[in-house]
Backbone:
């Protein structure tokens, strides 16, 4: 497994993988899953609270990160979160290195 490191970027810490990343906003206490290359703006799927530890365990597989978000969104989804479901079909059509497989 590749080693991943949290990077401090202003009030956020970011854990970057191939084609996606997880960002924790310390001021707002929210954790976002962000998938690159889904359009002009990369949508954020945000959970309230600090979910860094759980995402870090899964960061090498985007499917696992999506599964974690979907399992917890009913309880923790933030009002800033993208209201659309994560486009799993579109992700499957992307090249392997862009979806974390």
Residues:
């Amino acid at each position: 497994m590749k080693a991943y490191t949290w990077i401090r970027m202003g009030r956020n810490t970011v854990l970057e993988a191939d084609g996606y990343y997880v960002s924790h906003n310390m001021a707002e206490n929210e954790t976002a899953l962000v998938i690159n290359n889904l359009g002009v703006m990369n949508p954020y799927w945000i959970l309230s609270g600090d979910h860094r530890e759980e995402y870090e365990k899964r960061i090498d597989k985007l499917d696992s990160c999506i599964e974690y978000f979907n399992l917890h969104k009913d309880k923790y989804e933030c009002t800033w979160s993208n209201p659309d479901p994560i486009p799993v079909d579109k992700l499957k059509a992307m090249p392997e290195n862009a979806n974390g497989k």
User: Anything to note?
Assistant: Residues 97-101 have pLDDT under 50 and may be disordered. Residues 62-76 form the longest helix (15 residues). Residues 7-98 form one domain. The radius of gyration is 13 Å.
